[in-house]
UniProtKB/TrEMBL annotation:
Family: Belongs to the chloroperoxidase family.
Known cofactor(s): heme b
Cited PROSITE patterns: HEME_HALOPEROXIDASE
Matches recorded under Pfam families: Peroxidase_2 (PF01328)
Keywords in alphabetical order: Heme, Iron, Metal-binding, Oxidoreductase, Peroxidase, Signal
Residues of the Heme haloperoxidase family profile domain: 21-236
Name of the protein this chain belongs to: Cloroperoxidase
Keyword Metal-binding in record: yes
InterPro entries, per the entry: Chloroperoxidase (IPR000028), Chloroperoxidase-like_sf (IPR036851)
Signal sequence residues: 1-17
Source species taxonomy: Eukaryota, Fungi, Dikarya, Ascomycota, Pezizomycotina
Gene3D superfamilies in the cross-refs: Chloroperoxidase-like
Amino acid sequence: MNTVLVATIAVAGLCSAYSEVARDWKPSDLGDSRSPCPLLNALANHGYLPHGGRDLDRDTVLGALEDAVNLDRPLSDFFFQAALSTVPLANATQLSLHHLNQHNAIEHDASLSRPDAFFSSHQDVFDPSIFAETRAHWPDPVISVRQAAAARLGRVQTSNRTNPAFELNRAGAPASVAETAVYLIAFGDVEAGTVRREYVEYLFENERLPCELGWEKSKFVLTQKHLEAMSGRVVAETNSLLNGAGIRDVTTVSQSPLSGDEL
């Protein structure tokens, strides 16, 4: 067979496989709606969600999370309903990504990549200096659950020390744990509790799925069970870190395992 034809077929096959994982990517434009969540922003940048990030209904959001990261619909629906509560309109059925910037609803202090609301109103914008602190807890090419927990705990402690209005309430605290659990299960090995550091850095820094680095979405559906289990592991490692240092976390509620209504 002609080598050029072979190469053409191979490239076509690669592109076909790649398109099953991620669509074309385009950065946000001025006027696009974006959130404090790098994953949701990435889904808009890839076109899984409308690029403008506005007027998103349930089916659109659930379908995007299923297609992009293989999150099951019951868990996605829970997240959607929580997000819908940030819309300042009674009986809303749609939301825009910027609605999630509402402080102490889903958005919270001690973000891994955003400044606290006390210091800035731009929680939809990635902050390299904040993320640099987070990354400092990931010294190895592969992030373990313990390192992920250390990064989250480090941000909580820094925020508590520097922000006079610091708070992790009953909504923000579980969200703080869940955002760490989500990047571990969506981009890493669910059983091992590990994830390649470059995948996570690429997602946060570019708001882009790390397909070009070799990541592929989970071949099995990710459920509430997976999220709860990983959240519990993050909490356990956090408590271990605190006990080893002989200190007590300032946000006890943030260490509570996620389950049921608190997920």
